[in-house]
Write a structure and sequence with these properties.
Length: 55
Amino acid sequence: MSRTQQGAVSGGAIGAGVGAGFGLLTGGSLVTGALVGGALGAVGGGLYGDSKEKK
């Protein structure tokens, strides 16, 4: 697995957890928070992993 893929997977998992927690704390939807957080985390983690892979 490349660094880009690893970053996307770990970022997605962390983002989903943070998003679910944020949804729970703010009274919003737990599922929506997890989905949005997971998507944003996967994109961010993939970009970070890609930047590390190019060095």
